[in-house]
Each structure stands twice: as C-alpha cells, then as structure tokens.
Amino acid sequence: MLRWMEPRIELLWWDGCPSTERALADLRSALREAGVDPASIQLREVTSNEQAERERFPGSPTIRINGRDPFPGDVSIGLSCRIYRTADGRASPTPDPDQLRAAIAREVAA
User: Fold this and answer.
1) Of 102, 99, 12, which is closest to residue 64 (Cα–Cα)?
2) In sequence order, which residues have a C-beta less than 8 Å from that of residue 27 and are 6 or more positions away?
3) What are the C-alpha distances in Å from 74 to residues 47, 63, 71, 77?
4) DSSP structure class, residue 6
5) DSSP assignment letter at 45
6) Considering the entire predicted model, what is its pTM?
7) What percentage of residues in the chain have a pLDDT greater than 70?
8) Who contacts 56 (Cβ-Cβ below 8 Å, separation ≥6)?
9) Does domain 9-109 have CATH number 3.30.390?
10) pLDDT of residue 80
C-alpha cells in the first residue's frame, strides 16, 4: 500500500534579511492551501559564508522542497538578500505567491 508522505519544506535565511518573515508567512499560507501542515517547515539559519558554500545557499530567503530549490536561476552563493522574479518579470525579495503555490502543488501531487 502506498502512503502519502508530506514534502520536506525548508526555509533557509540569514540574520540580515528583512524578507524572511514575509517569505515565511507566504510559505505557511501556501502550505495550508495545499493541505500540508505549516508546522512542518524546517527553519535553517545560515550564519557564515562557509556554511553558505556548503549549503549552496543563494541568498535569503531560500525555500527548498524535498531538497530542491523550486526557483533556480542565476544566483550567487553567500550571505546576501535574494532577488526573485514574479510571473510578470518584476523583481521581488520573496517568491511570487502564485508560483510558490504551484511549486508546492507539484510536490504534493508527485
């Protein structure tokens, strides 16, 4: 018998990021909509450039679903603020909420 498993959700951040709380709120909302317990989010602070290199951390906030970044792109590794692109191409400090919901839906359905 196959058993559905909740996806592994991580939010990686660093202390200098002003967008972490907004990203966390958007992530919690998207997970609730997908029927995934928002309490399952693993918050992981990245505290050094060495850790950023080990983690392949492209800036804060970074969301990973089952170990994968659903928003890959041309990003540098290190302790910095991350820039995302919304569906209409605008720059944003957090993932586009619609794109985030779609990424979670893909993983939950997988």
Assistant:
1) 12
2) 9, 11, 38, 41, 63, 100
3) 22, 16, 10, 10
4) P
5) E
6) 0.89
7) 93
8) 77
9) no
10) 92
